[in-house]
Automatic annotation (TrEMBL):
Keywords: Cell membrane, Membrane, Transmembrane, Transmembrane helix. The keyword rRNA processing does not apply. Residues 401-447 form the PAS domain. Its cofactor is Mg(2+). It is a multi-pass membrane protein. Residues 559-693 form the GGDEF domain. This is PAS domain S-box-containing protein/diguanylate cyclase (GGDEF) domain-containing protein. The chain crosses the membrane at residues 12-35, 352-373. One of its GO terms (cellular component) is plasma membrane. Residues 474-526 form the PAC domain. Its main location: membrane.
Length: 709
């Protein structure tokens, strides 16, 4: 009896002995990994703290550099913004006047027509209510002056500002050019203080039917003041990291803009009753006075009333009387370290849990060995029950899949059209209605050709169907037409659904509107081929046009092609003496003069700082009179002085000309023109040199010749 009991007890003892050994090994492994992981994470935390401090300083340096650049860029663009806005507003007024003139000048008398134009502009305001339109005659008589209507009809020719500048004469001079348009700088009484004059810039153009000077302008300081809220808002919205913010303060410690505490803007914290805040504010002010740098101090976190430790980079903006502050709360560092600590704990817990799971699985396997036979019969019945359960699950999953497919079809952003084998529409989703304007019941049963436009010919659709028949799919760009007649581009993908025997069951078309993408591509193409300052073609556009024209000439032997390399003489002196704004004005004026001297078939380009290139095509009739005449005209126009405000700037240029010969590539032609330009500068500047074995020279024309040209 005892023997039998021992015999039956032995397998269980063996099972429990093996299980205990495995358990001890698992526990030993768990303890080892726990201690090893803990030590490793302690070293990592120390290294992480040092690296985070260094990365915080680098991040503050980068963010500060970006913020300073943006602030200075905004102020730098104030004048340009004022000029652009003034020109845009003036041209809108001229468009309105031209439209009214074209519509009513045959119906009204001249006096009635003029009065209609004047009253149409009188009440228009812009620039936050400061801006208005004025109209003057070329003899200096005021036609429209909304801020002083009593002056209308009187001559303002002798009105001067506090510098002695004749305001009306400056406006007349601004339109005394080929474009009959330009800018005028003068001073006038500021709206907020009618005893003090401040700088003002106006843009004027001539209204041709009556030779009226039409224009508008605004005060420069207003545009700079208008920029300050943008700068404040920009400072408030800068975020980096989890707790990285910017602040802007005046030199006396008054908070101007803050991403942390915008509700406290306008407060001078050097007088704060809280000594910690007062000491922190004084630290910022003192650091800025000493040239800036890194400082630790206490400050408020968003939504907290208790100050927290913060590392900030402080930079003084002396030209504005501001202090720019970029700071990161050290709570973020603590949070990162805490996150690492928690990660370490999670890893340790994971190791323990895995060991426990392994122990549990081994124990369950041991128990399973003893219960295998008793459960064998039950498993037979369970198998049938599981099969039934699987079938039910598959049916539910199939139903859910069908519902999901229907939801995806209806909620898809792309338009989806399903048609039958005869290409009659069976089903469309709501996106088709949004894109095409057709309702679903207007398309069901019809052929998709109702959406076609006239942009593609029959050959295009023939190739489409050939691809569908041979490959079962077609993808490409196509132009279709909405219900309202608007033609738009779309990206279309058509696939063929066939049954097991290869017969067509459905055509499935998926498409989306790419109008915005096409517009963006056009804008990018224009930006890539245009010089942003002058509006002329850039070097890339020049090389494309030159290579295309040379290929055409090589093939058809006409027309002749000539390159004019134009380089302004002593342009650096203009930038040094008058500033880069004046230099940019000179470059823009040179570009306008080049454009006025050329025909529509010619191309003017800016390829460098003060370097211009003219690509000219001419009829090869055995002489070079056309090119010499163009050279004299260019030289005459480019030697005329440029007026900027009250200053007349003398300019000069040197021009090198090379004519293309058969077999010569674009590189050789440009090299020849460049050599001719070098010769022109070497011979004294202010002249044109034609490249060749016997180079010809065109010097500066006499006043009589210039008048003739």
């Amino acid at each position: 009896m005892n023997k039998n009991n021992n015999t039956t007890r032995f397998p269980a003892q063996l099972l429990w002995g093996v299980s205990c050994i495995i358990l001890i090994l698992l526990l030993s492994q768990t303890v080892y990994f726990f201690i090893s992981t803990k030590n490793q994470h302690q070293h990592q935390l120390v290294s992480l703290r040092e690296n985070l401090m260094q990365s915080q300083r680098k991040r503050l340096d980068a963010e500060m550099a970006d913020a300073e650049y943006m602030i200075r860029q905004m102020f730098t663009e104030a004048t340009d913004l004022l000029k652009r806005e003034s020109r845009q507003q003036t041209r809108q007024a001229l468009q309105l006047m031209n439209s009214l003139y074209q519509r009513y000048h045959k119906q009204l008398s001249e006096a009635e027509m003029k009065q209609l134009l004047i009253e149409a502009l009188r009440e228009i305001r812009f620039f936050d209510g400061r801006g208005y339109y004025f109209i003057d005659q070329l003899d200096g008589t005021a036609v429209l002056l909304p801020i002083a209507p009593e002056m209308e009809g009187r001559s303002l020719l002798n009105n001067r500002d506090d510098t002695g500048h004749y305001i009306m004469r400056g406006l007349i001079e601004a339109v005394s050019n080929a474009q009959r348009a330009g800018f005028s700088n003068y001073r006038w009484y500021a709206p907020d203080n009618n005893q003090v004059m401040k700088d003002k810039i106006a843009y004027v153009e001539v209204f041709e039917p009556y030779n009226w000077i039409v224009g508008t302008g605004d005060y420069l300081y207003r545009f700079e003041d208008d920029l300050k809220p943008r700068i404040y808002n920009y400072i408030r919205n800068i975020r980096f990291g989890h707790t990285g913010y910017f602040a802007l303060a005046s030199n006396d410690g008054t908070l101007l803009a803050s991403g942390v505490t915008p509700e406290l803007e306008g407060v001078n914290f050097t007088d704060d009753p809280n000594p910690r805040i007062r000491e922190s504010a004084q630290t910022v002010v003192d650091t800025a006075r000493n040239g800036g740098g890194y400082r630790f101090y206490d400050w408020f976190r968003p939504g907290d009333t208790t100050p927290s430790k913060k590392l900030s980079l402080i930079e003084p903006l002396q030209d504005r009387g501001w202090i720019l502050i970029a700071g990161i709360f050290q709570d973020e560092l603590s949070e990162l370290l805490l996150a690492q600590e928690q990660s370490r704990d999670r890893e340790i817990r994971t190791v323990v849990i895995k060991q426990v799971i392994a122990f549990t699985i081994i124990g369950l396997l041991a128990l399973l060995l003893t219960l295998t036979y008793s459960r064998w019969l039950q498993s037979r019945f369970k198998r049938y029950e599981n099969d039934i359960h699987k079938q039910q699950t598959m049916l539910r999953n199939t139903a859910d899949s069908l519902k999901l497919s229907s939801l995806i079809f209806e909620s898809a952003y792309e338009g989806i059209i399903v048609s039958d084998a005869d290409n009659n529409i069976l089903q469309v989703n709501s996106a088709v209605t949004r894109i095409t304007g057709y309702q679903q019941d207007e398309l069901i049963g019809k052929n998709p050709t109702v959406l076609a436009s006239d942009r593609q010919d029959a050959g295009f659709y023939r190739r489409m169907w050939q691809s569908l028949d041979s490959e079962g799919v077609w993808r490409g760009e196509i132009w279709n037409q909405r219900k309202n007649g608007e033609v738009y581009p779309e990206w279309l993908s058509i696939s063929v659904n066939k049954d097991s025997s290869g017969r067509v069951q459905n055509y499935i078309a998926i498409f989306y509107d790419i109008t915005q993408r096409k517009e963006l591509e056009q804008q990018l193409r224009s930006m890539a081929e245009t010089d942003p300052l002058t509006g002329l073609a850039n070097r890339r556009a020049l090389m494309d046009s030159l290579n295309r024209d040379l290929a055409f000439k090589e093939r058809y032997q006409s027309p002749g092609i000539a390159l004019f390399f134009v380089d302004l003489d002593h342009f650096k002196a203009i930038n040094d003496n008058y500033g880069h704004d004046v230099g940019d004005t000179v470059l823009s004026e040179v570009a306008n003069r080049l454009t006025c001297c050329l025909r529509e078939s010619d191309l003017a380009c800016r390829v460098g700082g003060d370097e211009f290139v003219v690509l000219s095509k001419f009829k090869e009739d055995g002489d070079s009179r056309q090119l010499h005449q163009l050279s004299r005209r260019l030289l005459s126009e480019l030697l005329k002085p440029v007026r900027f405000a009250d200053v007349e700037i003398a300019i000069s240029c040197s021009i090198g000309v090379a004519v293309h010969h058969q077999g010569e590539d674009s590189y050789a032609l440009m090299k020849s023109a460049d050599q001719a330009l070098y010769m022109a500068k070497h011979q004294g500047r202010g002249r044109v040199i034609f490249y060749g074995d016997n180079p010809s020279t065109i010097a500066c024309p006499s006043p009589a010749e210039a008048e003739t040209l």
